[in-house]
Amino acid sequence: xxxxxxxxxxxxxxxxxxxxxxxxxxxxxxxxxxxxxxxxxxxxxxxxxxxxxxx
Length: 55
Ligand SMILES: [Zn+2]
Description:
By secondary structure, the protein is an all-alpha fold. The chain has three helices and no strands. The radius of gyration is 12 Å and the shape is elongated.
């Protein structure tokens, strides 16, 4: 369970970072239409993962 959450967190992180690398608006904090859901997913999974570590 923890491994799967971590795997999803890493995948979301990779997807977001890969997108941001090639996307100037996303790099400067103005998320584009494609980047917004990637960023949301990354933030959500990061929160879930960090909460999991704390609990
Ligand atoms: Zn973008």
